[in-house]
Amino acid sequence: xxxxxxxxxxxxxxxxxxxxxxxxxxxxxxxxxxxxxxxxxxxxxxxxxxxxxxxxxxxxxxxxxxxxxxxxxxxxxxxxxxxxxxxxxxxxxxxxxxxxxxxxxxxxxxxxxxxxxxxxxxxxxxxxxxxxxxxxxxxxxxxxxxxxxxxxxxxxxxxxxxxxxxxxxxxxxxxxxxxxxxxxxxxxxxxxxxxxxxxxxxxxxxxxxxxxxxxxxxxxxxxxxxxxxxxxxxxxxxxxxxxxxxxxxxxxxxxxxxxxxxxxxxxxxxxxxxxxxxxxxxxxxxxxxxxxxxxxxxxxxxxxxxxxxxxxxxxxxxxxxxxxxxxxxxxxxxxxxxxxxxxxxxxxxx
Length: 350
Ligand code: GN1
Ligand code: MG
Hints:
Shape: globular
Bound molecules: 2-acetamido-2-deoxy-1-O-phosphono-alpha-D-glucopyranose, magnesium ion
Number of domains: 2
Order of helices and strands: HEEEHEEHHHHHEEEEHHHHHH
CATH superfamily of the largest domain: Aminoglycoside phosphotransferase (APH), C-terminal lobe
Number of strands: 9
């Protein structure tokens, strides 16, 4: 880990006296926890194969941070620590080549990998709803696009069909049943296309990665704030609500290989509705509100599609820790989608 010495020195931290540990379960960026005396930090190396313009992330976070500071000074916003030269990120060459940023570690906070109960889902949903609501006066279109077409389901579907044409032939054959399921459910893509044309759907400041590990909790399990602000871009509410459903509804994560463990918890669904509405009720149009359940289908289908596409493309995006890893992840997400759809009539009533 001494390798990070140069990076930390830009922040005036002497790596020789600091404790450095790998941290978290994110698939894209590499994260470390740094302990320097009594100060705790999170250091991240931004994956520049994915975020080709890391400066755009820095500029979005700075703009949003300034707006919140002006209008809601009590709002807890985790802004990056500046380097001793006053920069928000450092671009390194040589052995540690890449773009890094340092964040304060929020004292006495913890994050969770799985939602244990409905109260936690409520807390998280309210936090993400609050984030978008407080930024309703901020011009979402002024944000830079850190990941073009990130949650554009038509684009993701196109990547999938391209992979079917040009991808690994053997993997395509072995994935036949999942491919068939994705194709049979293409109406989820058409519905997204009609949303894009619908003037009642508003583009708002959207987090785009609302999994539970992106919420910090205090020791009494109250949510403190949201983190991981790299994918903040203009977007539809279905991205944030849908990713909450995708990651909070089951008791197991997208990594679970035993699909019989994948279930949709009604009380957690209800908590997402109540938590998000507690903040966003007056913001959503009736037309948007009618698509609340669709949000879950949209995000779970998109994640299944992305894992499956990556499997067919030989794991170039997400990587694989064991053979067929992304195929298993895709199967997990398809199972989750089936479990959700089975409950459509019950959950839509909530
Ligand atoms: C990626 O890096 P991480 O784990 O925060 C991905 C999300 C996916 C998620 C699935 C930039 O997020 O869109 O939902 O993996 N982020 C990017 O675990 O592709
Ligand atoms: Mg993320």
